[in-house]
Amino acid sequence: MAGNNGNGRKKGTPNKKTQSVIDQLAALDCDPIKGMATIALKAMEDKDFILAGSMFKELAQYVAPKRKSVEMSTHVTFEERLHDLTDEELDAELRGLKLDPAKL
Description:
By secondary structure, the protein is an all-alpha fold.
């Protein structure tokens, strides 16, 4: 079935437990986002930067999702690596490979 998560629900539809929590919060007239924002602003006012930072960090994920780290790999060929070496560095590199620069 395309468009659902295998449980028969359309993608994005909350499950029963999540919907129950949403309904309970609504019945209590409780908005957790507004609450965290209120705490964060009050903490800033009180110069409680640890609490403010914690609240803002929680809130930030709703407006700026965390980025995945990207692994970058570069491949430099032996020839490319040797290209920018000085003659002395090149001789040392060749000696490290047990090659006699004088015989090349």
